[in-house]
């Protein structure tokens, strides 16, 4: 999908799938276009090119079935002078959801005790919980959440992780955006990396973690890189200056180090973390899947 705002291309052929029964995380730096992509999924932004389909229907059109998508756009989309209860009740009435479900969602989101307070008095975390309660109201088949961890306390983060997992286990397609991979690392089944409006990579997290390499810590970094280049090994450099992850068999690496007389303080088989993969993808700017 493409989107242009004021002559600036914000989405450039961004294409990704969000499978049922899984938590997909859309990650990327600030300004990458994540919110814009989510708004397009929610039918709030019309793409200038390409198309968006949710269960075969285009969001934002009259043929899009009510209750197909639960959308959380953030904690600042509420009318300040309304109570939490009335905010949700208003939404529930427009979508034929009974009041009992409103009470249940407020309870589940942990804000039943403040339901009669005006939103203006809510903390950031309470507003976020109200948004999450709203997304759950209609028990939609698809959930789209923009930065849902923002403002949540540690207990809230744990609750949200469990909630996302249970929603996926019930068969829903769950899409969560974040600019922090560490935040979603524990819950992502699938990750889509978006930068400058382009999808750089998308992968199942199990596949990423299965892909491994040889972790080498050596004070002779420059020589290690020269060796790797000569042997045509792929290398991921870590923030820690002395550490690299080499995509080769460990016996091969050991042999080459010994032949070249290279020293190391650590050499072991290691699996790639999601964060390693994320930064590698950003550095390479290429397509991995
Ligand atoms: N309504 C708008 N009018 C003009 N430009 C916009 C509009 N909405 C977003 N943009 C621009 O589009 C780009 C992408 O914004 P978007 O909010 O989609 O990014 P994001 O990845 O969600 O960022 P963040 O992680 O900071 O929330 C930014 O450069 C932003 O300034």
Automatic annotation (TrEMBL):
* Keywords, comma-separated and alphabetical: ATP-binding, Nucleotide-binding, Transport
- Residues forming the ABC transporter domain are 1-221
Q: Which InterPro entries match?
A: AAA+_ATPase, ABC_transporter-like_ATP-bd, ABC_transporter-like_CS, P-loop_NTPase
Q: Name any one Pfam family assigned in the record.
A: ABC_tran
Q: Name one GO molecular function term.
A: ATP binding
Give the matching PROSITE patterns. ABC_TRANSPORTER_1, ABC_TRANSPORTER_2
Q: Which Gene3D superfamilies match?
A: P-loop containing nucleotide triphosphate hydrolases
Per the record, the similarity remark reads: Belongs to the ABC transporter superfamily.
- What is this protein identified as? ATP-binding cassette domain-containing protein
Upper taxonomic lineage? Bacteria, Bacillati, Actinomycetota, Actinomycetes, Actinomycetales
